[in-house]
Amino acid sequence: NPEGVLLKFIIEDVAPKIVVDFHGGVCGGHFAGRFTTHKILRVGYWWPTLFKDATFLVRRCESCQHFSGRMKASGSLPLQPVSIEAPFKQWGIEFIGDISDPSSAGHKWIIVAIDYLTKWVEAIPTKKATHQVVMDFLLNHI
């Protein structure tokens, strides 16, 4: 590249899989072609048609086509500040998943809790996303 950093050259057969993984994989985020391309370059991959391939594949992403234009914030309800009195008094809890490529132990979900005041994070992998998992997580980790 122009900065003199050596990049890994990718063969044509592997390139589409890399673009798909960086665009819509576990850490993808379904960003536009240009941003996806920069993510690929940042980790050190390169091939001659990278920009063209990323733009082409991102434009054909079914999820992006389906949700394009639907994720607009409604301006009708103003945000209300949340008053937090003490650390670890109020938590936000969410599941991440269903992860398409589970761990070797069969974990397909991650339960995450974030303290509203300190932003402290607790997270564990789980096999299921159920109320029982939440209860066990709260009892053992929060």
TrEMBL record:
<protein>
    <recommendedName>
        <fullName>Integrase zinc-binding domain-containing protein</fullName>
    </recommendedName>
</protein>
<dbReference type="Pfam" id="PF17921">
    <property type="entry name" value="Integrase_H2C2"/>
</dbReference>
<dbReference type="InterPro" id="IPR012337">
    <property type="entry name" value="RNaseH-like_sf"/>
</dbReference>
<dbReference type="GO" id="GO:0003676">
    <property type="term" value="F:nucleic acid binding"/>
</dbReference>
<dbReference type="InterPro" id="IPR041588">
    <property type="entry name" value="Integrase_H2C2"/>
</dbReference>
<dbReference type="InterPro" id="IPR036397">
    <property type="entry name" value="RNaseH_sf"/>
</dbReference>
<dbReference type="InterPro" id="IPR052160">
    <property type="entry name" value="Gypsy_RT_Integrase-like"/>
</dbReference>
<feature type="domain" description="Integrase zinc-binding">
    <location>
        <begin position="15"/>
        <end position="67"/>
    </location>
</feature>
